[in-house]
């Protein structure tokens, strides 16, 4: 079976919702926190914890209205239809917060697509809300990401499955090592080049769908030896 895994921020949705959210509700302090993360001074979990704490009190309605301002990649609906027509299950993997992933998907009619993200915890006093993050999908041996995308790929994919991964940024650097077919843009391209991982560059989901149609027609959607070995090695190590 061919299985498709997609990043969310900047991939399924056109903008980086998490980054924009904290810039909007926190301001320059959020920029400083992210800079520490990008320089390797803190990991993704600490970054998200600090950002949530820096929000302080906020109206939940304002948070939801903010999320409603984001659109899906224009080619995503047709891509989903293509995958369903060819019985290729889709899973969305995000190192952001589940409240906005869920709301945006449901708002656009894709609430049935399974997704995994960091858990948003809302604490309400009167009409004001504070938010914090929990990490139910962290990897106990890894200090980098909040939601370990690699583990989702490995656990949900059988040995004979072909794994397709679509992403764009830092949280996608690890899972692409375990994918047979990689679609990359933005910062993920540089990482694939540095790690000697073959990839297809894309601009949007129209590009991805057209490329997959051609690959399927030529019977080139097939396992990548290094990826299959990497997935098996995870279970052997355990």
Text of the CATH class: Alpha Beta
SSE order in H/E notation?
EHHHHHEHEEHEEHEHH
Helix content estimate: 40-55%
Strand arrangement, major sheet: 4-3-2-1-5-6-7
The class by helix and strand makeup works out as alpha/beta
Can you summarize this structure?
The chain is built from ten helices and seven strands. It has helices at residues 17-25, 28-38, 44-55, 60-67, 76-85, 98-107, 149-156, 187-194, 205-217, 225-237, and strands at residues 2-7, 90-97, 115-125, 128-134, 162-167, 181-184, 200-201. α2 runs antiparallel to α3 and α5 runs parallel beside α9.
Describe this structure in words.
- The chain starts with a strand and ends with a helix.
- It is built from ten helices and seven strands.
- Helix 2 packs antiparallel against helix 3 (44-55) and helix 5 packs parallel to helix 9.
- Helix 6 (98-107) links the parallel strand 2 (90-97) and strand 3 (115-125).
- The longest helix has 13 residues, at 205-217.
- It is an alpha/beta fold.
- Helices cover 43% and strands 18% of the residues.
- It has one domain: HAD superfamily/HAD-like (Rossmann fold, 3-Layer(aba) Sandwich).
- It has a seven-stranded mixed β-sheet with strand order 4-3-2-1-5-6-7, with helices on both faces.
- The model has no long low-confidence stretch (mean pLDDT 92).
